[in-house]
TrEMBL record:
Keywords: Membrane, NADP, Oxidoreductase, Signal-anchor, Transmembrane, Transmembrane helix. Residues 355-364 have a biased composition (Polar residues). Its main location: membrane. Residues 323-364 are annotated as: Disordered. It is a single-pass type II membrane protein. This is 11-beta-hydroxysteroid dehydrogenase-like 5. One of its GO terms (molecular function) is oxidoreductase activity. Coiled coil: none annotated. It is found in: Membrane. The chain crosses the membrane at residues 15-37. One of its GO terms (cellular component) is cytosol.
């Protein structure tokens, strides 16, 4: 058996690459024809259908709500910031949504997920699309985090914040032959520094939905949307934590990253979901790195080490959220950069950490 495996290890990878190279033109032609057919002749009509969107108070969730509104869908918008949802609901109505419900809820709590799903069913009698866009990122190195209470928060929001709404809504999605749309990220398989916990949570999320896809078969569709860098609040340093308070990690990246427009990604997600696409990728050229990871992992590793090296330069980020002191700043503008926001939004007074960290400080 060991001899057979050794032989297959030697033969299968190059044979697969050769087969892929020869069949790629045919596969591309078939995929293009399928895309054209589903776009112009088989796209789902969302008029008067019901779309439930979690994490709808900003960023990708907000823009997805607008895209569904343009298609005439009834919307149920869920987030913790109810005051933000009110303005978004008005915008959605102006764009064409016949009806919009807003609900303040915490998606990491199963009972609250049951509440907003049941209220949706009681009001509309159905749910056709469930869109999970809740996400929480971070920009610290793992060894910098001295307050481990943030670890379960990151996992809860990025994993359970998607699983619980799916678990509760799945029976109703079966009845309507509906669809689940998941907001993932390329970090689920393309690791980047300072995003260890986020990447782990997204990887778990993708594997959960890939398994669920086989379990529900054709009764419920699943569209997994993966993106590179998107210019949302998540990458600008503003996150929501317990009790609805805002926490600023106040991390400034050493590597300059330019994010793609949220509006374009949201448009592709909704279009792909209506076509019945299993995957939506923005931008799609990220996929080439997956081949390198499988067939030439050292090349990928060397490339990222070269691109992300700082040449021994002095670290320029603050350590807020990791329990370490702020760096000295020489100007209000420099302080604003560390805050990840404009100068007029700088917080006044002492910084607020998690309850666990505050208790630890008191005990010391």
């Amino acid at each position: 058996m060991d001899l057979i495996n050794s032989l297959l290890n030697f033969v299968v990878p190059p044979a697969s690459l050769l087969m892929l190279a020869f069949t790629w033109p045919t596969l591309f032609f078939i995929t293009s024809c399928e895309w054209l057919y589903n776009t112009y002749f088989n796209s789902e009509n969302m008029e008067d259908k019901v779309v439930l969107i979690t994490g709808a108070s900003s960023g990708i969730g907000e823009q997805i709500a607008y895209e569904y509104a343009k298609r005439g869908a009834n919307l149920v918008l869920v987030a913790r910031r109810e005051h933000r949802l009110r303005g978004i609901s008005e915008n959605a109505r102006r764009l064409g949504a016949p009806s919009v419900l807003i609900m303040a809820a915490d998606v990491v709590k199963e009972e609250e997920c049951r509440r907003f799903v049941n209220e949706t069913i009681n009001y509309y009698g159905r749910v056709d699309h469930l869109v999970n866009t809740v996400s929480l990122g971070h920009t610290f190195y793992f060894e910098e985090a001295t307050d481990s209470s943030v670890f379960p928060i990151l996992m809860d929001i990025n994993f359970w914040g998607n699983v619980y709404p799916t678990y509760v809504a799945l029976p109703y999605l079966r009845e309507s032959n509906g669809r689940i749309i998941v907001n993932a990220s390329v970090e689920n398989w393309l690791p980047l520094p300072r995003m260890s916990l986020y990447s782990a949570a997204k990887s778990a999320l993708i594997n959960f939905y890939e398994t669920l896809r086989f379990e529900v078969k054709n009764e419920v569709g699943i569209t997994v949307a993966t993106h590179g860098w998107i210019g949302t609040e998540m990458t600008r340093g503003k996150f929501m934590v317990e009790e609805g308070a805002e926490m600023q990690w106040k991390e400034e990246r050493e590597v300059h990253v330019s994010g793609g427009p949220v509006e374009e990604f949201a448009k592709q997600i909704v279009s792909g979901a209506c076509r019945g696409d299993p995957y939506v990728k923005y931008p799609s050229w990220y996929d080439i790195f997956f081949l390198y990871r499988v067939f030439a992992p050292k090349v990928l590793d060397w490339t990222f080490r070269f691109l992300l090296t700082n040449g021994g330069a002095r670290r320029t980020t603050s350590f807020i959220g990791t329990g370490r002191p702020l760096l000295e700043t020489s100007s209000p503008r420099r302080s604003a950069l560390l805050e990840g926001s404009s100068p007029r939004r700088l917080p006044q007074g002492p910084l607020t950490f998690s309850p666990a960290y505050q208790q630890q400080q008191k005990s010391e």
